[in-house]
Structures are given as C-alpha cells and as structure tokens.
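Colleagues,

Please find the record for the two-part complex below.
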Amino acid sequence: MKKMLYRWFDERLKLRPIKIALLDEAIPGGASWVYIFGSITLFFFLLQMITGMFLAIYYSPSIEHAHESIRYIMEEVEFGSFVRGLHHWGASGMMVMIGLHMLQVFLYGAYKRPRELMWLVGVVLFIITLAFGFSGYLLPWDQRAYWATQVGINIVGTLPLVGTSLLRIIRGGQDLGAMTLNRFFALHTLFLPWLLILLVTLHLFILRRVGPAGPWDKARAARIREPFWPKQVAMDAVGILIAFMIVAGLAVWFPAPLSDPANPTDTTFNPIPEWFFLFYYQLLKYFSGPWEVVGTLILPSLFFLILFFLPWLDRRKDRRPISRRFFFVGGGLFLTMVFTLIAISIRDISSLPTLSPSVLRGKAVYHELDCAACHRIHGAGEAFGPDLSYIGELRSRDWFIQHFKDPQSLVPDSMMPAYGLEEQALHDLTDYMLSLKHEIDR
Amino acid sequence: MKEHEGRRRFLARATGAIAALVGVTIGIPLAGYTIIPAFKRRKPVWMDIGPVEALRTGVPTELELVLSVKDGWHKTNKKKSVWAAKDSTGQIIVYSPICTHLGCGYRWVQKKQSFLCPCHNSVFALDGKVIKGPAPRPLDRLPVKMDGDRILTRYKEFKAGISRQIAL
C-alpha cells in the first residue's frame, strides 16, 4: 500500500532525486551524536511555530485585553498552561540548542571555507531568534514584560546619534504602550517567522549543496561515509525526544510565569530579562556615564562583527583544534565571561529583597502620615524621634500594634500622637516596621 | 548484508515511533485546547427582574435585566429583556423574548389579548400557545423562582425555527 502510493506520486513528481538529496547525503566520518543539535534547534523552531499559532487562537494583542487573555489561557482553557509552557520553555530550549550547535560548529571549524555562507546565514538566524525572544517577552503585558522591555528599549535609546530616533521607532510612539505592543506582536508573529523560515530554508539548502564538514581528521572523514538516513536521523530523533521531554516536563511542573498586569506607575517592580539576555544585562552595570557606550554599542558591535567574520579571521585550512589555539582560547574566555556574568546576575537577583505587598502598603502609609518628619530611616527623615533603620530587630508585632494605637501606654513620655489607624493600615505599617532589619527576610 | 538491512529497519522504526510519540504528546493537548472551550456553556445564574407588584394579572410586562456575559476572556454586560406575566391562578410565567419562529422580538397586544410577532405574524396566547402563524412551538418559558417579593429568572435563548426546544 505504502509502496503503491509512493510509486503513484513518484511517477508524477519524480521524487527519487529529492529523496536522494534529502536523505541519502553522505556524512563524512559517519553519523555522530555531535551533529544532533542543528536538528533539535529546527525541531524547537517548529514547536514554537505550532504552539505560537495555537496561542494566537486565544491571545488578544491589545493593552486592555492581553493580560486577561493570557490569564484565560493559563487558568480556563484546557491544556492552556501546557501549551503556553511549551512555548515559554521551548524558547529557552531553542536558545540552548543554538548555543550547542554553534559551539559544535566552532569546535569543528566547520565555518571554514567553503562553508562561510552557511555560517553567515546561521549568525543571522541566531540574531533573529534573539529578536523573537525580546519581542515575545512583551506580549503578556504583565509587570515583568513591561519593565524588562522598558529597560531593553532604553538601552537602545542610549546609543549615540540614532538612539532617540531608534527608541521612537521601536516604541512606535512616545511611550511604551498600545503602539509598542501591536508592533511587537506583528514582529513576533508575522515578520520574524517568515524571515526565519526563509533563512532556515537557505541554511539547509546551503548545507545540502556544500555538504556537512565532518570530522577534522581527514583520514577518518575519507574512510567512513554514511548516509544521513537512517542512522543520523535516528540519532537526531533521540536527541529531539530527550529535549522535548525536558521541555514538556518543565511546562507541566513549572508553568510559564504571569505577574500582575503592566502598571506604568508602579516603579517598585524589579525587571529581570529572559535568562539569555541576562549576561548582557549584567555587563551593562559595569559601564556608566561616558563609558555607557562601550556596553551599549562597542562591545555588542564587536561581538557580532567577530561572529560574522569568524570564517575570515580563522582562515587557515587546517580544522584541527591544535592549530587553532588562539581561537579556542578566545572562545573559551568569552564563554567563561558569559557564564560568570550570568552567575553574578543570578546571585544578585536572588539576593534582592522581595517585599511583600503589605510591606509596600505599609511604606505608603509611612509616607502618607509623613512619619519622616520625626523619624529617620537610613539617613532619610528627621531625627526628633528614634531612628527606625533597624527597628524591626528591636520590637515585636504586638508592641508595634499597641504602640500605634496608644504610644504613651508603652513609652510614657513619647511625643508621638496616636493616629487612629484603621485595622488594615495598622497591620501594614507594622509589617513595614518589622521588615526594617539588617538581614531582610525572604 | 541481511543484518545491515535489519539494522536499518530498526532505526527507521525507532525514528517513526519517536515522531509518533512526540506528535501525540503535542497533538492531543492542542486539539483539546482548541476544541473543548468552544463547547463550554455558561452557568446560568438566577437574576432579579423586579418585584411581583410590577405585574398585573393578565397583563404581560416586559422587564429588563442586565446579563453579565463572559465571552472567553472578554466580559461584557448586556441588557436583555423578558416578558413576565401573572395568569389568573396567580402563577408567574416568564418568557424568553424571542419568537420561536425565526427569532424576532414579539410584543403583547392588550386589545387582542395575545403576543404578536411583527415579522411573520405569529400569534401566541398568554400561556404561550401558538394561536396563529408559522411559529413551530409555544413561547419558551424560563425558570422562575421567588425571593420574597422579587422575581428571579435564569435567562436563556433557544434555537428558533424548530418544534423542539433546544437551548443555545
């Protein structure tokens, strides 16, 4: 039956040459587990396309409804959390696989002549994937999305000469708002996918024309030649299965986050970018004032220039690592820097005090009552009354509550008036006082 | 050579099995994700449509209610009306406001003591029965509940044009 169908189509479409081109391409040196990362990247791209299309069934790209529509997907649609989880973790999976794929190409010197074009297209694919990550991050229109994008766009805004105009163009107007969300949505779901499909096709076309590089050991490459089908395909499939199971597991057990709806007036939110931008986010902290341009323009330009022109910088024909020591050391240093910055960034982020809502409300009460007219916290405010910088270590909850109700009952000669706080404000202010410590409870 | 063929077949089958496994793990959730919400029904809620005093025996009155409609993530309040009547036994009847013929809005004509649909001249009696015209079934009654002197109903609309009553 299968054979009959194949024959029927083959007679009309002349499938044999295509089959040979796609499946019977000889791999110098034979199939290897090292070559699976490109296929897994492609798999993740397909997964992103499929889950993305399905997310668009319920998502609404408007600032009034975006957050609510994502909440609806997460809480009310059957499998909604799983589908969004696949898309969320799939993005990370794709980044990891691109990283491993590029690393493999780098280690094998596979970008060398005559494969420069494949490498160039690959670098553009990598940049497009980063643009996918950045534009997709805004779409839920939650606090994380809003503030991380705010920071991201403002980095562009600091570029000399073109910064301000570029900022406007990316935002689509004066502020980050309705226009920004719509253009990010169009970019993420229409412009970028087509561009990526086109370039992936080109990437694979070049691969099929020029053939895979194979191992750097020429004798081995010449001795063993194995077709792509079925062994390499089976290895790719096993890799895909493992990668998919990890992403599916993450989607089930660690649902994609959704914080409160974006609130431009709430500046207490601490924006954290997606992990694959984290090292850059950390890097920027080391350049301020006139040096800012080093972080925002010079280093990124340098990085992409080196990446683009790598085949012409590392141009000796010999692909063995031993003859490319300079590039190995350079690559190693770069990766060490990236991972160190990621580690520092994660450490800093995890040591950030996360304030509970009641503490934030208490802080607001503190300002409303102008407590700083008499009290001082870390140098801010007057010093008529006791300094409150570490007051949370000295008094108990009951003490605060009693004291706010009737200060003189606990401190007879206190000048502090009883404010007659309502129950909610009383507890919020107490929570704020208790949070004033050397070590912040987390 | 034979062993080599067997090995090729095994690899091909393994690849096919993995493709099927991944396909099913993605495909089934995606199908459910797309289809199931389309078949969900809103839970009807009891809504206050006014006091009993608003009704005079034998004179149906159009009463308004505000229906808060959840359409997926979209929430809106829609104004709807129902026809409420008190018959001679004192029983309160509430009708869905659309004609059972093709869904037009009908009204009570006091002079003729009947409900008249202006679209195709279906005529219904106070108890909802078809007196004349093309309507395939009596007016659709909605459930009624009393809370003190307030009338409560659960708003529903039904498929028009057929003799069976099927809620939309």
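DSSP finds one helix and eleven strands in chain B.

Comments are welcome before we finalize the supplementary table.
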